[in-house]
Amino acid sequence: METMPVLIECFNLRYDTDKDGEFKWAKRRKRVVEHLVQLAPDVIGMQEVLVKQRDWLKEKLPAYSCIGVGRSDGRKGGEFVPLWYNKDTVKKIESGSFWLSKTPDKAGSIGWGAKLPRVTTWAIFAKDDVEFCVVNCHLSHVSEEARNRGAQLLLTQAQSLANGRPLIVMGDMNALPSEAVYSTLSTCLTDVGADNPQPTFNRFNQGPAVKRIDYLFASSDIRHRDYRVHLPSSPELLVSDHYPISAYFDISRA
Protein backbone atom coordinates (compact mmCIF):
# COMPACT_ATOMS: atom_id res chain seq x y z
CA MET A 1 0.00 0.00 0.00
CA GLU A 2 1.28 3.46 -0.88
CA THR A 3 2.20 5.66 2.08
CA MET A 4 2.96 9.32 2.68
CA PRO A 5 6.03 10.06 4.88
CA VAL A 6 5.57 12.76 7.50
CA LEU A 7 8.47 13.97 9.66
CA ILE A 8 7.36 15.05 13.13
CA GLU A 9 9.40 16.43 16.01
CA CYS A 10 8.59 16.85 19.71
CA PHE A 11 10.61 19.63 21.33
CA ASN A 12 10.36 21.06 24.85
CA LEU A 13 11.87 24.47 24.13
CA ARG A 14 12.40 25.54 27.77
CA TYR A 15 10.82 28.84 28.70
CA ASP A 16 12.81 32.08 28.67
CA THR A 17 14.40 32.76 32.07
CA ASP A 18 17.64 34.41 33.13
CA LYS A 19 18.08 31.62 35.69
CA ASP A 20 19.51 29.46 32.90
CA GLY A 21 22.72 31.50 32.69
CA GLU A 22 24.83 30.36 29.75
CA PHE A 23 21.84 28.43 28.40
CA LYS A 24 19.26 31.21 28.64
CA TRP A 25 17.07 31.72 25.60
CA ALA A 26 18.98 34.65 24.10
CA LYS A 27 22.15 32.55 23.98
CA ARG A 28 20.66 29.38 22.46
CA ARG A 29 17.83 30.59 20.25
CA LYS A 30 19.98 30.75 17.10
CA ARG A 31 20.94 27.11 17.66
CA VAL A 32 17.25 26.26 17.94
CA VAL A 33 16.54 27.79 14.54
CA GLU A 34 19.58 26.13 12.97
CA HIS A 35 18.40 22.76 14.27
CA LEU A 36 14.86 23.21 12.95
CA VAL A 37 15.93 24.51 9.55
CA GLN A 38 18.37 21.64 9.11
CA LEU A 39 15.87 18.96 10.16
CA ALA A 40 12.90 20.61 8.37
CA PRO A 41 10.07 18.68 10.03
CA ASP A 42 6.60 18.75 8.54
CA VAL A 43 5.12 19.27 12.02
CA ILE A 44 6.73 20.35 15.30
CA GLY A 45 5.13 20.05 18.71
CA MET A 46 6.74 22.35 21.29
CA GLN A 47 6.25 22.83 25.01
CA GLU A 48 7.07 25.70 27.42
CA VAL A 49 6.92 28.43 24.77
CA LEU A 50 6.30 31.99 25.97
CA VAL A 51 4.67 34.49 23.62
CA LYS A 52 7.91 36.42 23.02
CA GLN A 53 9.66 33.17 22.09
CA ARG A 54 6.81 32.26 19.76
CA ASP A 55 6.91 35.67 18.09
CA TRP A 56 10.68 35.52 17.60
CA LEU A 57 10.45 32.06 16.09
CA LYS A 58 7.69 33.21 13.75
CA GLU A 59 10.08 35.79 12.32
CA LYS A 60 12.92 33.31 11.95
CA LEU A 61 10.86 30.41 10.58
CA PRO A 62 8.81 31.97 7.78
CA ALA A 63 8.06 28.56 6.23
CA TYR A 64 6.04 27.60 9.32
CA SER A 65 2.68 28.59 10.74
CA CYS A 66 1.98 28.30 14.46
CA ILE A 67 -1.15 26.98 16.18
CA GLY A 68 -1.87 27.36 19.89
CA VAL A 69 -2.90 29.60 22.78
CA GLY A 70 -1.46 30.58 26.13
CA ARG A 71 -2.42 28.16 28.87
CA SER A 72 -3.41 30.83 31.40
CA ASP A 73 -6.12 32.66 29.45
CA GLY A 74 -6.56 30.99 26.08
CA ARG A 75 -4.88 33.95 24.40
CA LYS A 76 -1.31 35.07 25.11
CA GLY A 77 -0.93 34.44 28.83
CA GLY A 78 1.43 31.79 30.16
CA GLU A 79 3.19 29.01 28.32
CA PHE A 80 2.07 27.77 24.91
CA VAL A 81 2.11 24.15 23.78
CA PRO A 82 2.09 25.02 20.08
CA LEU A 83 2.05 23.04 16.89
CA TRP A 84 4.11 24.38 14.01
CA TYR A 85 3.55 23.13 10.49
CA ASN A 86 5.47 23.63 7.28
CA LYS A 87 3.17 25.54 4.93
CA ASP A 88 5.04 24.20 1.91
CA THR A 89 4.40 20.55 2.74
CA VAL A 90 1.35 20.38 5.03
CA LYS A 91 -2.13 21.89 4.97
CA LYS A 92 -4.10 22.57 8.15
CA ILE A 93 -7.69 21.35 7.98
CA GLU A 94 -8.82 22.34 11.49
CA SER A 95 -7.34 22.89 14.93
CA GLY A 96 -8.07 23.80 18.53
CA SER A 97 -7.11 23.57 22.18
CA PHE A 98 -8.41 21.99 25.37
CA TRP A 99 -7.31 21.98 28.99
CA LEU A 100 -6.46 18.91 31.04
CA SER A 101 -9.06 19.44 33.75
CA LYS A 102 -12.65 18.59 34.64
CA THR A 103 -13.67 21.53 32.40
CA PRO A 104 -11.50 21.04 29.31
CA ASP A 105 -13.20 23.82 27.34
CA LYS A 106 -12.56 26.42 30.06
CA ALA A 107 -9.40 28.44 29.38
CA GLY A 108 -7.00 28.47 32.29
CA SER A 109 -8.71 25.66 34.17
CA ILE A 110 -6.53 23.52 36.45
CA GLY A 111 -7.06 19.83 37.01
CA TRP A 112 -6.51 17.46 39.91
CA GLY A 113 -3.88 19.34 41.93
CA ALA A 114 -1.72 20.31 38.96
CA LYS A 115 -1.16 23.85 40.39
CA LEU A 116 -0.83 25.24 36.85
CA PRO A 117 -3.11 25.08 33.81
CA ARG A 118 -2.15 22.40 31.30
CA VAL A 119 -3.28 23.13 27.75
CA THR A 120 -3.25 20.72 24.81
CA THR A 121 -3.08 21.74 21.14
CA TRP A 122 -4.48 19.59 18.35
CA ALA A 123 -4.82 19.80 14.59
CA ILE A 124 -6.01 17.83 11.59
CA PHE A 125 -3.44 18.11 8.82
CA ALA A 126 -3.22 16.90 5.24
CA LYS A 127 -0.10 16.14 3.24
CA ASP A 128 -0.86 15.49 -0.42
CA ASP A 129 -4.48 14.92 0.61
CA VAL A 130 -3.54 12.30 3.21
CA GLU A 131 -5.19 13.42 6.47
CA PHE A 132 -3.87 12.76 9.98
CA CYS A 133 -4.39 14.12 13.49
CA VAL A 134 -1.64 15.45 15.78
CA VAL A 135 -2.10 16.19 19.50
CA ASN A 136 0.58 17.95 21.57
CA CYS A 137 0.62 18.19 25.37
CA HIS A 138 2.64 18.92 28.51
CA LEU A 139 1.50 17.06 31.63
CA SER A 140 1.81 18.25 35.22
CA HIS A 141 5.23 18.23 36.87
CA VAL A 142 3.87 18.15 40.45
CA SER A 143 0.75 15.98 40.63
CA GLU A 144 0.71 12.28 39.82
CA GLU A 145 -3.08 12.31 39.86
CA ALA A 146 -3.12 15.21 37.39
CA ARG A 147 -0.78 13.32 35.08
CA ASN A 148 -2.80 10.11 35.27
CA ARG A 149 -6.20 11.73 34.83
CA GLY A 150 -4.76 14.12 32.25
CA ALA A 151 -3.43 11.20 30.21
CA GLN A 152 -6.85 9.49 30.31
CA LEU A 153 -8.57 12.68 29.15
CA LEU A 154 -5.87 13.29 26.55
CA LEU A 155 -6.35 9.84 25.03
CA THR A 156 -10.16 10.11 25.00
CA GLN A 157 -10.11 13.55 23.41
CA ALA A 158 -7.40 12.65 20.90
CA GLN A 159 -9.24 9.56 19.65
CA SER A 160 -12.46 11.55 19.34
CA LEU A 161 -10.77 14.37 17.43
CA ALA A 162 -8.97 11.96 15.12
CA ASN A 163 -12.34 10.38 14.28
CA GLY A 164 -10.75 7.38 12.61
CA ARG A 165 -7.82 9.22 11.06
CA PRO A 166 -4.23 8.19 11.77
CA LEU A 167 -3.22 9.74 15.12
CA ILE A 168 0.05 10.99 16.59
CA VAL A 169 0.16 12.05 20.25
CA MET A 170 3.30 13.70 21.60
CA GLY A 171 4.61 15.77 24.42
CA ASP A 172 6.52 16.14 27.64
CA MET A 173 4.64 13.69 29.83
CA ASN A 174 6.76 14.27 32.95
CA ALA A 175 6.52 10.52 33.48
CA LEU A 176 8.86 7.57 33.08
CA PRO A 177 7.96 4.44 31.10
CA SER A 178 7.37 2.65 34.40
CA GLU A 179 4.54 5.01 35.40
CA ALA A 180 0.77 4.84 34.88
CA VAL A 181 0.72 7.64 32.30
CA TYR A 182 2.85 5.58 29.96
CA SER A 183 0.68 2.50 30.49
CA THR A 184 -2.46 4.50 29.71
CA LEU A 185 -1.10 5.82 26.43
CA SER A 186 0.83 2.74 25.30
CA THR A 187 -2.19 0.47 25.79
CA CYS A 188 -3.87 2.09 22.78
CA LEU A 189 -0.93 3.74 20.99
CA THR A 190 2.55 2.66 19.93
CA ASP A 191 5.57 4.18 21.66
CA VAL A 192 7.69 5.15 18.66
CA GLY A 193 10.89 5.30 20.71
CA ALA A 194 10.46 2.06 22.62
CA ASP A 195 13.37 0.38 20.82
CA ASN A 196 15.68 3.34 21.47
CA PRO A 197 14.78 4.49 24.99
CA GLN A 198 17.44 7.14 25.51
CA PRO A 199 16.95 9.86 28.14
CA THR A 200 15.36 13.06 26.86
CA PHE A 201 15.77 15.40 29.87
CA ASN A 202 19.34 16.70 30.09
CA ARG A 203 19.08 19.29 32.91
CA PHE A 204 21.40 21.65 30.97
CA ASN A 205 24.28 19.40 31.99
CA GLN A 206 23.52 19.83 35.71
CA GLY A 207 23.87 16.15 36.47
CA PRO A 208 23.33 13.08 34.28
CA ALA A 209 20.53 12.91 31.72
CA VAL A 210 18.72 9.98 33.26
CA LYS A 211 15.04 10.58 32.51
CA ARG A 212 13.03 9.66 29.46
CA ILE A 213 9.91 11.83 29.76
CA ASP A 214 9.29 13.06 26.18
CA TYR A 215 7.41 10.79 23.79
CA LEU A 216 5.98 10.27 20.34
CA PHE A 217 3.02 7.87 20.20
CA ALA A 218 1.17 6.70 17.10
CA SER A 219 -1.98 4.76 16.28
CA SER A 220 -1.55 1.23 15.02
CA ASP A 221 -2.39 2.14 11.42
CA ILE A 222 0.82 4.20 11.10
CA ARG A 223 4.23 2.75 10.37
CA HIS A 224 7.12 4.63 11.91
CA ARG A 225 10.88 4.69 11.33
CA ASP A 226 14.08 6.60 12.00
CA TYR A 227 13.21 7.61 15.57
CA ARG A 228 15.95 9.90 16.82
CA VAL A 229 16.96 11.67 20.02
CA HIS A 230 18.82 14.77 18.87
CA LEU A 231 22.01 15.02 20.92
CA PRO A 232 24.34 18.01 20.48
CA SER A 233 27.80 17.59 18.97
CA SER A 234 29.19 19.22 22.12
CA PRO A 235 27.67 19.70 25.62
CA GLU A 236 27.80 23.49 25.38
CA LEU A 237 25.66 23.41 22.21
CA LEU A 238 22.43 22.26 23.86
CA VAL A 239 19.28 23.75 22.35
CA SER A 240 17.18 23.14 25.49
CA ASP A 241 17.13 21.24 28.77
CA HIS A 242 15.32 18.52 26.81
CA TYR A 243 16.65 16.77 23.74
CA PRO A 244 14.29 17.09 20.78
CA ILE A 245 12.97 13.79 19.44
CA SER A 246 11.74 13.05 15.93
CA ALA A 247 10.55 10.25 13.66
CA TYR A 248 9.12 9.58 10.24
CA PHE A 249 5.51 8.42 10.14
CA ASP A 250 4.45 6.55 6.99
CA ILE A 251 0.73 7.19 6.69
CA SER A 252 -1.29 5.05 4.31
CA ARG A 253 -3.40 6.62 1.64
CA ALA A 254 -7.08 5.82 2.05
Report on this model:
There is one protein chain. The protein has 254 residues and is α+β, with helices and mostly antiparallel strands. Helix content is 21%, strand content 31%. It is built from 4 helices and 12 strands, in the order βαβαβββββαβαββββ. It has helices at 25-39, 51-60, 144-162, 180-188, and strands at 3-12, 43-47, 64-67, 83-86, 91-99, 119-127, 130-138, 167-172, 190-191, 214-218, 222-229, 245-252. A 6-stranded mixed beta sheet has the order 3-4-2-1-12-11, with no helix packed on it. Helix 1 links the parallel strand 1 (3-12) and strand 2. Helix 3 (144-162) packs parallel to helix 4. The longest helix is centred in the middle third of the chain and has 19 residues, at 144-162. The protein is globular and about 50 Å long. It starts with a strand and ends with a strand.
Supply the key terms.
254 residues, alpha+beta, 6-stranded mixed sheet, 12 strands, 31% strand
Oligomer classification: single chain
Please give the order of strands in the largest beta sheet: 3-4-2-1-12-11
Shape: globular
Task: Give the C-alpha Rg.
Answer: 17 Å
Order of secondary-structure elements: EHEHEEEEEHEHEEEE
**Uncertain runs:** none
Q: Please state the structural category.
A: alpha+beta
| Terminal Cα span | 9 Å
Q: Total number of helical segments? A: 4
Strand content: 25-35%
- How many strands, which pairing sense, and closed or not: the largest β-sheet? 6 strands, mixed
The strand count comes to 12
Bin the helical content.
Answer: 10-25%
Average of pLDDT: 96
